[in-house]
Amino acid sequence: MLLDVADLAFRHPGGGGVGPLSFTLAAGEACLLLGPSGSGKSTLVQLIAGLLSPQSGSILLAGEPMHALGATGRDNLRRRTLAIVFQSLRLVSALSVHANLALARRLAGLPADPARMGALLERLGIAHLAGRLPRELSQGEAQRAALARALVTEPKLLLADEPTSALDDSAAAAAAMLLLDCAREAGAALLVVTHDSRLKPHFARAIALGADGRIATDTAI
Ligand SMILES: Nc1ncnc2c1ncn2[C@@H]1O[C@H](COP(=O)(O)OP(=O)(O)O)[C@@H](O)[C@H]1O
Ligand SMILES: [Mg+2]
After folding, report:
1. 106 near 114, Cβ under 8 Å?
2. SS3 of residue 5 by DSSP
């Protein structure tokens, strides 16, 4: 398994959080994690990424125990294995699209690869925008740039947090297809967390999170 989450639970100081929950994700598998606002989806993304440490349970990522590593170990494991497309995109505002991608590769510890960067921008239909700053992009273009930046780090796992909440029906469907197609082409597993039930028909597997932060149903089981 690429990702093995077991009995994972986390509570924020205010009492909100996620879990306990367990699920696995195979290499290259795509899965939707659907839950209402406040059910703990973003908290789960941060736990998987090692940005938060769980209070109980375990997270094995590419066979390594994210939950048991110190801050430096978590940073290294995150860099080597996963990429996140945040709802807020978080492109570096002072850098061009091209420079955002180059920086992401460098931070992931990978050598510069202009050909790969060019091919990804081409694939996402934004090669002509490579020299633009994030503020010079439309929302849809910026989303594509954020996806390109995630994929240029050659992740084994691509996490997307609410990638479609601000989009109309046809744009949401297109964004879901783009995530699925690009993750498959890159050989990356994909976990999309969202409250947007419009995405369900696009995914072979869906995990439903209840308002209590536990798994209600998992269509793979
Ligand atoms: N940094 C934080 N500090 C305190 N409580 C938080 C924090 N982040 C999230 N929460 C709480 O944890 C619960 C789950 O939040 P979140 O993971 O953001 O849910 P979702 O992404 O599904 O909307 C909510 O009750 C939320 O208020
Ligand atoms: Mg969220």
Report:
1. no
2. strand
Q: Whose CA is nearest to atom 1 of ligand 1?
A: 12
Q: Tell me the pLDDT of the chain (221 aa) as tens digits.
A: 999 999 999 999 999 999 999 999 999 999 999 999 999 999 999 999 999 999 999 999 999 999 999 999 999 999 999 999 988 899 999 999 999 999 999 999 999 999 999 999 999 999 999 999 999 999 889 999 999 999 999 999 999 999 988 788 998 999 999 999 999 999 999 999 999 999 999 999 999 999 999 999 999 76
Could you tell me if residue 106 is inside a domain? no
Of 202, 155, 146, 197, the C-alpha closest to 176 is 202
Ligand 1 atom 25, closest CA: 16
**What does pTM read for this prediction?**
0.95
Asked, for residue 82, whether it belongs to a domain, the answer is: yes
Task: List the domain range (segments joined by +) for residue 59.
Answer: 3-89+155-218
Q: Is residue 137 part of a domain?
A: no
CATH assignment of the domain containing 20? 3.40.50.300
Q: Is residue 24 part of a domain?
A: yes
Query: Does ligand 1 come within 6 angstroms of the Cβ of 87?
Result: no
Distance CA 217, CA 160 (A): 20
Ligand 1 neighbour 37 (Cβ under 6 A): yes
Judge if the beta carbon of residue 19 lies within 6 A of ligand 1.
no
Ligand nearest to the CA of 162: 2
User: Domains in the chain: how many in total?
Assistant: 1
For the chain, what is the total number of helices (H) and then of strands (E)?
Answer: 6, 10
